[in-house]
From TrEMBL:
Membership in a protein family: Belongs to the CLPTM1 family.
Function: Scramblase that mediates the translocation of glucosaminylphosphatidylinositol (alpha-D-GlcN-(1-6)-(1,2-diacyl-sn-glycero-3-phospho)-1D-myo-inositol, GlcN-PI) across the endoplasmic reticulum (ER) membrane, from the cytosolic leaflet to the luminal leaflet of the ER membrane, where it participates in the biosynthesis of glycosylphosphatidylinositol (GPI). GPI is a lipid glycoconjugate involved in post-translational modification of proteins.
Keywords attached to this entry: Membrane, Transmembrane, Transmembrane helix
Originating species: Electrophorus electricus
Main subcellular location: membrane
A cellular component annotation (GO) from this entry: membrane
Name of the protein in its database record: Lipid scramblase CLPTM1L
Membrane topology: Multi-pass membrane protein
InterPro entries referenced in this protein's UniProt entry, alphabetically: CLPTM1
Taxonomic lineage of the native organism: Eukaryota, Metazoa, Chordata, Craniata, Vertebrata
Subcellular location: Membrane
Catalysed reactions listed for this entry: a 1,2-diacyl-sn-glycero-3-phospho-(1D-myo-inositol)(in) = a 1,2-diacyl-sn-glycero-3-phospho-(1D-myo-inositol)(out); a 6-(alpha-D-glucosaminyl)-1-(1,2-diacyl-sn-glycero-3-phospho)-1D-myo-inositol(in) = a 6-(alpha-D-glucosaminyl)-1-(1,2-diacyl-sn-glycero-3-phospho)-1D-myo-inositol(out); a 1,2-diacyl-sn-glycero-3-phosphocholine(in) = a 1,2-diacyl-sn-glycero-3-phosphocholine(out); 6-(alpha-D-glucosaminyl)-(1-octadecanoyl,2-(9Z)-octadecenoyl-sn-glycero-3-phospho)-1D-myo-inositol(in) = 6-(alpha-D-glucosaminyl)-(1-octadecanoyl,2-(9Z)-octadecenoyl-sn-glycero-3-phospho)-1D-myo-inositol(out)
Length: 499
């Protein structure tokens, strides 16, 4: 029943979480307009007067333009409603070529006037460079491994020096301006828009200058180019397009989230994976993915909860393959160490580490290992098995014997092969009542939800997912205990009802 599964509280928390998230998202993308356009509390867009504007982009080795600046591009007749893309070459100063930085200063100002002389100009500053570890040299299959090792020694300094981050060039600069004539309410001005807004008074009215935005999410790792001392100039693609106010606010929050993750230790590679979620995905599909992922999170949590609960209350290993648990733990730790050695993203590494700890805990429960501390020295004690458990161990050992014949020729299928002992035990006992079925079912639902997302992605490419069929193999064994330690035959027999 629902009460036994304790599903209602979890479902209630899940519904509250989804509704709260929807409310927060609605508050981000929706901005309340000014209800009295002729009132003093309204802020009118400066672009409504259709002024003649110019776009100017400068570079400087410092963000405040101290030490000089250079004009790299300008749009003299800048129309905020016209989309464009320009490819230019940017000359690099000596300090930038020597592992330094370079900044871009983007100005929107009155046409024919220098931006520093225009009191109604708006500008933003962004970095055109970032620091990353250089890409490792590729192995040449023709020239051999020796040259690869020689190149690697050269990249590390030749004396085993540690590789340090070097300056990389961001080859894209994406600009956006809110072109819609939106009236802001001064008393209900969103805080995220406030830091991008500059206002001025003209008579009794208040105007806000163009909302200029630099899209940092479009800067991807794949577009970075390593800078060295011999690089005189590098290409830069300047893209401009209008942006809706709701999308602007959403993009501001996403950029702030990525920046916060980087402050917590996420590398440029980790942040790039998160950027790809928003940049490479349609916003409507992203919203659909969010709802589907929310259900995936729910069932994943329930699977995790029930798996932990099953092993926490597990007193007997009857019908369970302890060797399968041991080898699953071993393979999970090997995978985690491999991911750790490859410096995989924290988004993958952290769940893998938690899964490894859980598998170690399962081994402790399966083999009935007890830790007794004598001072600072731990001692490991093993519990005894009863007759039913010893019978299961016999089947388990027999399965491992047969499995050893396949290990060497099929070593690549290591993870799959060590599922066989549990299958063999199930076959010999003709029962699967001892398995954590609730956790299995929740994991199956998680797999279904994930396959749903995958099917949506594949459908855009005209591909179909293969189908599969399932069948029931084992009959119902009423003498076997279930996950609660109760069998059907243990139910009290009731007396026949007398009319």
């Amino acid at each position: 029943s629902w009460g036994n599964l304790r599903f209602k509280p979890t479902l209630g928390v899940f519904i509250v979480y989804v509704l709260h998230t929807c409310w927060v998202m609605y508050g981000i993308v929706y901005t309340k307009p000014c209800e009295k356009p002729k009132g003093d509390s309204c802020i009118t867009p400066y672009l409504a007067g259709k002024p003649r504007l110019q776009l100017s982009i400068y570079t400087s080795i410092r963000p405040n333009a101290e030490g000089g600046h250079s004009l790299i591009h300008k749009e003299e007749e800048f129309d905020v409603h016209t989309r464009f893309e320009r490819l230019i070459n940017v000359s690099l100063p000596k300090k930038t070529r020597r592992n330094g930085t370079l900044y871009a200063m983007v100005f929107v100002h009155q046409a024919g006037v220098m931006p520093w002389q225009d009191p109604r100009q708006v500008h933003l500053v962004t970095q055109l460079t970032t620091y990353m570890l250089p890409k490792p040299p590729e192995v040449s299959l023709i020239q051999g491994q020796d040259e690869h090792l020689q190149q690697e020694r050269q990249s590390t300094g030749g004396d085993g020096e540690q590789v340090r981050p070097v300056s990389h060039w961001r080859s894209r600069l994406t600009l956006n301006i809110v072109a819609e004539d939106f009236l802001f309410d001064r008393d209900a001005l969103p805080s995220d828009v406030h830091r991008y807004m500059r206002v001025f008074n003209s008579g009794k009215k208040m105007f806000y200058l163009p909302l200029l935005f630099i899209d940092e999410l479009s800067n991807r790792v794949k577009d970075l180019m390593e800078i060295n001392s011999s690089t005189a100039e590098l290409p830069l693609t300047i893209s401009y397009d209008t942006i809706a106010l709701g999308k602007l606010r959403f993009w501001i929050h996403m950029q702030d989230a990525v920046y916060s993750l980087q402050q917590f230790g996420f590398t440029e590679k980790d942040a790039d994976e998160i950027k790809g979620i928003f940049v490479d995905t349609n916003l409507y599909f992203l919203a659909l993915t969010f709802f589907v992922a929310a259900f995936h999170l729910l069932f994943d949590f329930l699977a995790f909860k029930n798996d932990i609960s099953f092993w926490k209350h597990k007193k007997s290993m009857v019908g369970m393959s302890s060797k399968a648990v041991l080898w699953r733990c071993f393979s999970t730790i090997v995978i985690f160490l491999y991911l750790l050695d490859e410096q995989t993203s924290l988004l993958v590494l952290i769940p893998a580490g938690i899964g490894s700890l859980i598998e170690v805990w399962k081994v402790k429960k399966a083999f009935k290992i007890y830790v007794v501390w004598k001072g600072a020295v731990p001692q490991f004690l093993f519990g005894k098995s009863d007759e039913s458990e010893r019978r299961t161990e016999e089947y388990d050992s027999l399965a491992m014997k047969y499995l050893s014949y396949l290990l060497y020729p099929l070593l690549y299928a290591f993870g799959f092969l060590f599922m066989l002992p549990q299958l063999f035990v199930n076959y010999k006992l003709k029962s699967v009542a001892h398995l954590p079925w609730k956790a299995f079912m929740y994991k199956k639902v998680c797999l279904f939800v994930y396959s749903f997302i995958l099917a949506l992605r594949r459908s855009t490419h005209g591909k179909q997912l293969p189908t599969c069929k399932f069948s029931m193999l084992y009959p119902v064994d009423r003498t076997r205990v279930n996950e609660y330690g109760v069998s059907y035959d243990e139910e009290p027999k009731r007396k026949a009802h007398k009319d």
